[in-house]
Design goal:
The protein contains 15 helices and 16 strands. It is an alpha/beta fold. The protein has 2 domains: 187 residues, 3-Layer(aba) Sandwich (Aminopeptidase), CATH 3.40.630; 241 residues, Vaccinia Virus protein VP39 (Rossmann fold), CATH 3.40.50. The strands form 3 sheets. It has a 7-stranded mixed β-sheet, sandwiched between helices. Strands 12-11-10-13-14-16-15 form a 7-stranded mixed β-sheet, with helices on both faces. A two-stranded antiparallel sheet has the order 8-9. β8 and β9 form a beta hairpin. The longest helix is centred in the middle third of the chain and has 23 residues. The structure holds S-adenosylmethionine (SAM).
Length: 452
């Protein structure tokens, strides 16, 4: 890849689904323009080309132009394009903000910012990201784009297509772009959910009882493993803490709990509800914002697929004191029915690709064993996919008992569990595990091996 001084920069934004729609003041009017005669010849040609590319990519409606008019005159336009394979990392449901223009006499009045807020709020959809490209030497555009909530993802190189009519962008590490985009998607999802839900305070015990029957045995076991692992006065880090309910009981028993989560609005809500008993930090589980050897134990409930296991485990080892512990509960990816269900959610836009692909599996368990001296894993819900029918026939309480009994009797099928609870103790120092972790661990911690 050749280096030049100014390179195209890629920005991405995932708006909250129920962000308020901005209003335009003054004598302006805005709308989505189908009449291409308003635009100059070059833009009209480009719109025609993008239309053809959209059809080739299987999009029904696209592209279109958001316009602002004042006194009957066009004063601003922003082109909105579907994913045309131009930007690496863009998901099929994402939109790209293409060329934007503001009439010289109207610049500096915030029309671009209004247009971006309006487009991103009008077109927000479950799991949809908006993308923009801007040259690295265009300082005013860069700061305007960031002011409306777009995050800088990285830089790229512009390459013409073979037919010369359009171009696309290449980056050194496309997977990294997907990862950052997906993190923004999940943050927006949990922030949106926090706005929608008005959660009442409660204890973890009440909370477990409120869960659907198939989840209760695993979460009860998790609560038990957590209570057994940390004592009063010890420091526990709750990664992906969300509403913080998982550690409520422990805090009442004198454990010092620090919660970290990427969803800032969700954490603000948690902070208001917990009234200071939980110390909270906004942060990413891939790069934990804490010093070395700070915690006696780390826990994570339902968050293991939201980060790279290798980055996270490296961070866990760093922030744990010698001999520290990791306790977590999560879904398990070895059951084909559950796996199909999760991918179904991805295709419906309810989960990002990275999260769907990273649900813990047998390899994750083996990886964890390379970081800890001892690992104890419990498996739950081998028959959970039958639950809707069983609940109807026997009711919730009997179903929970039945699930516990079948998990015990179907122990040899435990790799098809729906949930796992893992308690790992005695964290190893880096020199012991780094080599094996990087090369992919080979020892099985569960006695289960993937078929060759
Ligand atoms: C399934 S929820 C679990 C919440 C909580 N532990 C519970 O059991 O109720 C996953 C949580 O992970 C958070 N999250 C997602 N990606 C994250 C990341 N990269 N770093 C930290 N937290 C993240 C979300 O904001 C959300 O609160």
């Amino acid at each position: 890849m050749t280096m030049s001084a100014a390179r195209p920069l890629v920005f991405c934004r995932v708006p909250n689904r129920q962000a308020s729609t901005p209003e335009i003041g003054g004598n302006f009017e805005c709308g989505y323009q189908a009449d291409r005669s308003l635009f100059n010849g070059q833009l009209r040609t480009m719109l025609r080309l993008w239309r053809l590319m959209s059809i080739a990519h299987g999009h029904v409606k696209a592209p279109f132009v958001f316009t602002i008019t004042g006194g009957g005159e066009l004063v601003h336009y922003s082109v909105v394009l579907p994913a045309l394979g131009r930007i690496p990392g863009m998901a099929n449901r994402d939109l790209e903000i293409g060329p934007c223009w503001t009439a010289p006499a109207y610049r500096g009045r915030g029309l671009f910012q209004f247009a971006m807020r309006k487009v991103c709020s009008d077109l927000a959809a479950e799991g949809r990201a908006f993308w923009m490209i801007c040259r690295s030497d265009n300082q005013p555009s860069k700061s305007a784009i960031q002011k409306v909530g777009f995050s800088l993802i990285g830089d790229c190189e512009k390459r013409p297509r073979r037919h010369g009519l359009s171009h696309y962008y290449v980056v050194v590490a496309p997977a990294q772009f997907i990862e950052i985009r997906d993190r923004l998607e999940e943050r927006a999802r949990y922030n949106s959910a926090a706005r929608e839900a008005n959660q009442e305070p409660g204890t973890s015990d009440v909370w477990v009882n409120a869960l659907p029957a198939p989840l209760r045995p695993a979460y009860r076991a998790y609560q038990g493993a957590l209570s057994a692992a940390v004592k009063s006065g010890e420091r526990l880090l709750d990664v992906c803490c969300g509403s913080g309910w998982q550690t409520e009981q422990l805090r009442q028993n004198g454990v010092v709990v620090v919660g970290v989560d990427i969803a800032d609005e969700l954490l603000a809500q948690t902070f208001r509800r917990q009234a200071g008993s939980l110390r909270l930090t906004v942060g990413d589980a891939n790069t934990l914002p804490f010093g070395d050897g700070t915690f006696d134990a780390v826990t994570c409930a339902g968050g293991f697929s939201y980060f790279s296991a290798v980055s996270f485990l490296g961070e866990v080892r760093r922030v744990l004191k010698p001999g520290g512990k990791l306790i977590f509960v999560d879904s398990f990816d070895e059951n084909p029915i559950y796996r199909a269900n999760r991918w179904w959610h991805f295709f419906r836009g309810r989960r990002s690709r990275s999260v769907t692909a990273r649900i813990p599996n047998l390899d994750t368990l083996d990886l964890i064993s390379s970081y800890f001296g001892e690992v104890d894993t419990q498996f739950f819900g081998v028959l959970t996919f039958l639950v809707p029918a069983v609940v109807r026939a026997f009711g919730e309480v009997r179903t929970e008992q039945l699930l516990n009994a079948t998990d015990r009797s179907l122990f040899r099928f435990r790799r098809y569990a729906f949930k796992i609870v893992l308690a790992a103790t005695n964290v190893k120092q880096p020199s012991h595990s780094a080599g094996r972790a990087a090369a992919g661990a080979t020892r099985s911690v569960t006695g289960l091996r993937r078929p060759a």
